[in-house]
Amino acid sequence: MNILQKIRATTTLKGPIFIPTLTFVGLVAIFCSIFPEQAQTTLNNAKLWVFAHFSWFYILAGSIFFLFLMFLCVSSLGSIRLGADTDEPEYPFMSWIAMLFAAGMGIGLMYFGVAEPMLHYLHPLQQGLSESERMKDAMMTTFYHWGIHAWAIYAVIALVLAYFGFRYKLPLTVRSGFYPLLKNRISGFWGHLIDTVALCSTIFGLTTTLGYGAMQVNAGFNHLGMLDGNSFGILAVIVIVAMVLSVISAISGVGKGVKILSEINLILAALLLIFVVVAGPTLFLFSGLTENLGYYFSSLLELSFRTFAYEPENKGWLSNWTILYWAWWASWAPFVGTFIAKISKGRTIREFILGVLFVPSLFNILWMTSFGGSAIWLDQQTGGALAAISGNTEDLLFGFFNQLPFGLIASITAVVVISIFFVTSADSGIFVLNSIASQGDEGAPKWQSILWGALLAILGLSLLYSGGLSSLQTMTLIIALPFMAIMIALCFGLWKGLMVDSQYSGKKFSQGSASWTGKGWKDRLEKIVNPTDRKDIRRFINQVARPAFRELVEEFENHDLTARMNFFEGKNPKIEFEVVKENLRNFLYGIECQSRELSDLVVEDSNVPNIDESKIYEPITYFFDGRQGYDVQYMTKEELIADVLKQYERFMNLAMDDSHNLMTADVENMGESSDNNMQ
């Protein structure tokens, strides 16, 4: 067996997903490496085109995701469980919350924790604001970018993966969310296309994050005197070393060690947060957090739909901040969503949405308040010490630590945290890429992890070479556009799946089965396996309903009540038992022949006998008050009589209560009765 045959025998990669992805990523990498100037120009033009034509779509999509999730949360659909109805959560509540905190941490918070609030403060959207107003707007904008909307984008993908994966037993891939829309076609071309777009989006989202990480690690080493400069060669070494470590982690089977390392890293990040709160303006931060939260939530609706349609001078700001963020979050959604989905089996949809939207968001807000609020306060106290280095965004974190006691220790800790996040993010990213390209198959051979690590490194370096971080952001922006459209479609698929789920779970036994004792079960089975037609319904009406109603008429007349039986011939025959009242509406219990379309799956299933037509016919009840009826075909004459009497008893109990007069009074003859009384 040659090498090629061994690869084919061991790989879990699906050709229709992997080959188009590899081709696209390879062409981008080659173009950026061989023609860096032309690539930069092309990418800039593409970015401007997307900004000009689709900025509104990114904003609207993000808001739709948030509103859609909140609607599911407050509706009855929120009670549906992610898994079987009897499934219990795999992780205790506090452990699940802790893992959601972990999902909220990463390179992004380390990179932007100081930088973004400072940049918004130094370059406000509105001119002429006071210091306090600039600071408040800076924090609110930062919360908007890192808060609920970001996690709504993640939550949509995570909820779709968890719901269809655990409830429908489908693979944990994006295509599974299209099952209600495409049915079995998700295994064909359209399913492959959806997963290909998701895979490409995840690859470029990961490379953008790794680009941020490489630049900040480089800045940290420069600050500590371990490196000098930020040339492409230095960045290349950092990326290659980080990817080698990530691949070794992915293929060595030391998952437990990596897990421990990640937990240690979270502890270090938490210690950094506590250090900043204690060493910084503590009381100011607590007061600021309270006011900032109120300002953020009160402005949330306005922020959600802000496109600056009437302020074109601010559209450049929107494009370079909010739109890029939304594209970045969308590209990371399959990555973060897969992690969240895997830990959320057994949770209800309501619990899932509240946890995923608010737990990480509140943590991010706390982080940004502590780092960003302290940085702005220190800049004010030092006469612009941080403003002086704001041109180098990656240096701001270490410049901020310089203004605090034990700044060197804090900077060393930050470099360690960023480096570990760099490696663990890439390691987890390789796992998710394998999962998407393999349609959820987790038994990937080691060489696939090496392949993905090399691909991420090559792509990241080629884009950095052609235009630095801007090129990474642009590719993320472009590939996230079709994926945003896919996410909108996923909302429709999820909605349809949930509606069918709700109806399916709420489906009750037919009225004729509710009180059945098992008598005559062979006859019942024959009726179940042989779908009824019009002849069967006529036979039921003539042999069961007519004798039952005739006996009821006779017995009601024995009690001095006026009752009658009405029969209507026709294509769909029906029969009625009616009790005539003077001041009340007449009691009516009717049965009519109704048709119902059968599922194509049942009609085409060779293992379901005796079904040749796409319709069946059923005797369905109807009542004087328009209530929904039910199938009575399995009832005997005595059971049908008992059912009529139950409905009549209900009618009389309601009629005796004045609060139900609007429904039980004889409205049609009320005017005639009044005229007679006047005469």
TrEMBL record:
GO terms for molecular function: transmembrane transporter activity. InterPro entries: BCCT_CS, BCCT_transptr. It is found in: Cell membrane. The keyword Amino-acid biosynthesis does not apply. The chain crosses the membrane at residues 12-36, 56-79, 91-114, 143-166, 187-212, 232-254, 266-289, 323-341, 353-378, 406-437, 449-468, 474-495. It is a multi-pass membrane protein. Pfam families: BCCT. One of its GO terms (cellular component) is plasma membrane. Its main location: membrane. PROSITE patterns: BCCT (PS01303). Keywords: Cell membrane, Membrane, Transmembrane, Transmembrane helix, Transport. Belongs to the BCCT transporter (TC 2.A.15) family. NCBIfam families: bcct. This is Choline/glycine/proline betaine transport protein. It comes from Mesocricetibacter intestinalis.
